[in-house]
Amino acid sequence: MRRPVFLLALLLPAAALAEPKSCRFAQECYNTLACTETDLEITVDLEAGQVSTPTGDLEIVGTYDGPVAKTAVLEGFAGYQLLTMGQLTWILSVHIAAGPAVATYYGECGAD
User: Fold this and answer.
1) Which residue of 4, 20, 81, 108 is surrounded by the most CB atoms within 10 Å?
2) Which residues are the signal sequence here (predicted)?
């Protein structure tokens, strides 16, 4: 039997994202090249179904509530993006159909 405290811990990531939340990514990895420092900031608004980036807003076309993280699928001008939002770490992967290529961003974006 699961205890209520355990169930509450499972709900924290989704509950923490009920309001718009910003994340600053510090590391970018492009395809198989070495990762480099970056300063990408995004804002996620799950209620509005969009993610704001420096290059424009992206529509959230699907979400998945996992046991310790929430995942959102975003549709952008170059293809799809996958954003995984954990309690302490967020990962954004940008899939570029023209390449094909992928850029992966890592950020420490835990709840304040």
Assistant:
1) 81
2) 1-18
**Quick one: tokens of 46?**
């799950």
In CATH terms, the fold of domain 4-108 is Lipocalin (2.40.128)
Give CA–CA dist 35/53, Å, rounded: 20
| b/e code 70-103 from CB counts within 10 Å (16+ = b) | bebebebeebbbbbebbeeebbbebbbeeeeebb
- pLDDT < 70 positions in the chain: 1-18, 110-112
